[in-house]
Amino acid sequence: MINVTKSTVPPLEEYIQYLQGIWERNHFTNHGCLVNELEEKLKAYLQANHFYYVSNGTVALQLAIRALDLSGEILTTPFSYVATTASIAWEHCKPVFVDIDPETLTIDPDKLEAAITNKTQAILATHVYGNPCDVERIEQIARSHGLAVIYDAAHCFGVTYQSQPITHYGDISTLSFHATKLFHTVEGGGVVTRNDDLAHKISYLMNFGHNGPEAFFGLGINAKNSELHAAMGLCNLPRVNAVIEGRKAVSDLYDSLLLPTGLITRPRIRSGTEYNYAYYPVLFASEADLLKVKQELVKHNINTRRYFYPSLSQLDYVGNQPVPITEDIAKRVLCLPLFDSLPHEIVSEVSNIIVNTLSHVMI
Ligand SMILES: *Cc1c(COP(=O)(O)O)cnc(C)c1O
Questions:
Q1: Alpha helices in 116-226 (DSSP H)
Q2: Does the C-beta of 229 come closer than 6 Å to ligand 1?
């Protein structure tokens, strides 16, 4: 069975060497040397002022919302993974959806301003599929209305925009290092900020609020990650650039086989982006076409995923907030298998199945 993604894994012996060290030190968590080493290396890779390695990308979003002390309305995208909206609701804030731009599939800045009320405190936008939001316009709008900006950069490891890592933008950016993501530590996440006060707050929020062993800065939670997870990250990090190269080759091959047919369209990657090829989403003319293709691929043991369907505006805890563009796109978008070791014959097979299925439809 070919799945939509396949976790990168190091040679087992490499991971076992790290395990040996962990066993010798008998130090499994609480800022052990591997967590510290990974944190330093990721901070350097991301050219970040402050970087915190946490237990997953969802708690990273929750920490961001807490660190900014948000309690009111947060303008957000309905086209993302459920964790983006769920984190807002989990923190007892109100997700207010702003529809997306139909070409880039990121939050539409033209609609942001109209959604601002006196209860609006922040914007939480997703660089969906690793495609940067319109960060310049969002910053302008946020500045002129005194709003905080959080970017869910879970898809963005390795993405740069205007020659800067995409995590430079916004007050806080969050990352996910889940096993399905381009760079992973099995479970894991990250919080990036340039702001020293926010950084300090995140540093104690993620560790029970501790200020040394016997004092507390305030309320906190356990969002630490372990030495075993950090070890996987240390194995995977040196391979990231090769992984991105491999994904680019697969993605380019899909492009060359599918784009000339005119049967599908692709989201537009914002210019100025050095992309990471995290996903290969295609848009079909209709949901019926999508379902036919998906079914046909399953018959050939090829699994695709409807990232991101349904539209998050369909969640039963968000109230009725119509977002027609997202609802239309969510029904027609499908992510094709994409990972660096995906055999190029499979890419051809997937492309042929799409072309044959949709040509039948037209006859
Ligand atoms: C994966 C993902 C998350 C959640 O990350 P976890 O590490 O699985 O908690 C959040 N937002 C987006 C957009 C994601 O794709």
A1: 135-145, 196-205
A2: no
Contact (CB, 8 A) for 156 and 167: yes
For tokens 């994904």, what's the residue?
A: 247
Interatomic CA distance for residues 61 and 92, integer angstroms = 13
Choice from 107, 178, 279 to test ligand 1 binding pocket (greatest atom count within 8 A of CB): 178
Domain count, the chain: 2
CA distance 152 to 245: 24
Which tens digits make up the pLDDT trace of 218-253? 999 999 999 999 999 999 999 999 999 999 999 999
pLDDT of residue 193: 98
DSSP state, residue 79: S
**Assigned domain for 4 exists:** no
User: Collapsing DSSP states into helix, strand and coil, what is residue 107?
Assistant: strand
Query: What residues make up the domain containing 136?
Result: 12-238
**Residue nearest ligand 1's atom 5 by CA:** 57
